[in-house]
Write a structure and sequence with these properties.
The protein is an alpha/beta fold. It has helices at 24-37, 57-70, 85-92, 133-144, 165-168, 175-183; strands at residues 2-6, 44-48, 75-78, 107-109, 115-118, 151-154, 188-193, 200-204, 207-211, 218-219, 231-232, 237-244, 248-255. It has six helices and 13 strands. A six-stranded mixed sheet has the order 4-5-6-7-9-8. The radius of gyration is 19 Å and the shape is globular. The N and C termini lie far apart (42 Å). The chain binds fe (ii) ion.
Length: 277
Amino acid sequence: MIIAQLTDMHIRPRGLPAYRVVETNTLVERALRTVAALRPAPEALIMSGDLTDCGLAEEYDILSELIRRHCTMPVYLVPGNHDRREVMKARLGHLTGIAGAGDFIQYAIEDHPVRLIMLDSVVPGFGHGELCDRRLDFLDRALSAAPAKPAIVVLHHPPVVCGIEHMDHINLRTAAAFGAVIARHPQVERVLCGHHHRPITARFAGTIVQVAPSTAHQVSLDLAAAAPSTFTLEPPAFLLHRWAAETGVVSHGVFVEAYPGPYPFVLDPSYPGAMHD
Ligand SMILES: [Fe+2]
């Protein structure tokens, strides 16, 4: 099974670039076109939060239209700190899991060889994330329901310290309690996150945390203490997770831009320096 993961699209009202610089809507459309052109086609598409920049109805309507136009596979979303649950439920309620009863947007997908447990780590009005006892209880019950089936857990806020200080201040604050639940369920192949706008991998609670880069702007890579909070226009990218029973989950980074190639690895006899028997 192949699952694409896009994150932190920060969609804006038409004509308004994010932070007055980033043409996020064009960039997410390019990413969706890249996903649509992949062969074999992904069977599922995850979007791990900060779907919109300000949680506006107009922003969700743009996302809804982009999904309708470009996605033939099922799309599974979780909110990020830039999203607003109520508006998301109102405008994207036709998508799987969004309009369910309850205060949070979290749900389990059972339709694939890998279960997808989608979590809501949002604390309204704040940048950091939390998983309260109710949300952790949902996770524990969901994972307990099928201990023998591989699972991927998706939430916006990474539960690890990455060394980019200003992002670590707004990561998942309840990482210890979350890790205690994850550690009880060794079938968790990955914890997939967004939020940090960079490709980051870390060990966590007996599994692997994987942070996807943004389809739009990236957070500056600055590991110095008290580094300023800035972003760059490094190449937009997303992740492609391939699962097979023999290998578990293997994750690939995919740049959105089209590059020259492919070229064959052919060494003909006239290739300078080629070694021949
Ligand atoms: Fe973001």
